[in-house]
Design brief:
Layout (H helix, E strand, L loop, with lengths): L7 E2 L11 H9 L22 E2 L21 E2 L8 H12 L21 E4 L4 E5 L15 E3 L2 E8 L3 E5 L3 E2 L2 E6 L4 H15 L1 E2 L3
Parallel strand pairs: 2-3
Antiparallel strand pairs: 1-6, 4-5, 5-10, 6-7, 7-8, 8-10, 9-11
Length: 204
Amino acid sequence: MGAPGSRLAPTAGAGPPVTSVARQNRDMATGGEQAERGRRPARGGRRPGRSCRYPVFVASWVLLALVGCGGPGSIRLTNVPIPAESVRSSCVDLVHDLPPSLGDDLDRRTLDPPQATAAAYGAAPVVLTCGAPGLPASYRPDAMLSVVDDVGWFAENLGGTTVRYSTPTRQPQVVLTLPADVQAFEVLVSVAPAVRAHSRSTTS
């Protein structure tokens, strides 16, 4: 599964391995133990010819409602986490080095206004931010991580329609939010080089 050379492995000391990101998505979508319940995003109507608004979770790790439209137009992201000054330059470099596409129908979108520490891909969209402080409420030190190309990701189901991946054992922290029907493994493989290059492990 995924690109040649890509692999899934357990994070040291983080419990049993997760052998398949796709299987983890399916398990969470049917009510896995790590699912955050009662947070079903509301969806707004389409407004052709207008910029789209896609609020991103705030520092408290609450996912706000997604409102906006798909298509090739620009996207407005609100409540993007503000990185600490000590990691801001790493976040800027990380986002700058992200690829132009994460796969089929997941081309990088224009942000209006521009955001130096966030990126969006595809119509839904997939959103990546860098520099979020704190940790997800459901994360525990012994939680299982999905390790893709040497980057450990903590996965959460948000209401069944959205999945959030974060890197609680790396600094600066990267958070990736995507629709549950998107193939997460390919996305994680695509962003791994930039994440490895511009964040460091806090467990080694």
